[in-house]
Design goal:
Length: 145
């Protein structure tokens, strides 16, 4: 069984209420329950949502030695958080970047991800299902290695 860290960045606690036309009405608690159900007999999940960049960095670092991989939706930090990028390069497990919308199809400032070049891959644009697709893909990659 694999150990998977799931990180939700700033404002994702409002998923289901914030911009439902972009993110849908499925709540973050719903997404976490769907992830837990999908992980049964496949992975142990540790799930964290925080609005604080430093907490995300600490959690990435603290998971060295435990995590086999991570799913990470950095929210708006995707576009400018170089410290998060550096933290991802410092960990010894693959990180898959997750987005419910397609950042490149939105406002200009969302078109650039500083995380993508150091992530193992990116899943975006499928709403809440992006998380399940990312989990399935990450587990497939880990099981193939």
């Amino acid at each position: 069984m694999k150990n998977i860290l799931v990180l939700h960045g700033p404002n994702l606690n409002l998923t289901g209420r914030r911009e439902p036309d972009v993110y849908g009405t499925t709540t973050l608690d719903d997404i976490n329950r769907l992830l837990e159900a999908r992980a049964v007999n496949r992975a142990q999940l540790r799930i964290l949502q925080t609005n604080h960049e430093g907490t995300l960095i600490d959690t990435l670092q603290d998971s060295i030695g435990w995590a086999d991989g991570a799913l990470f939706n950095p929210g708006a930090l995707t576009h400018y958080a170089y410290a998060l990028r550096d933290a991802i390069t410092a960990v010894d497990y693959p990180v898959v970047e997750v987005h419910m919308s397609v950042p490149a199809a939105r406002e200009d400032f969302r078109h650039q991800s500083v995380i993508a070049p150091v992530a193992r891959g990116q899943v975006a644009g499928f709403g809440w299902y992006s998380y399940l697709a990312a989990l399935d893909t990450l587990l497939h990659l880990l099981e193939a290695d």
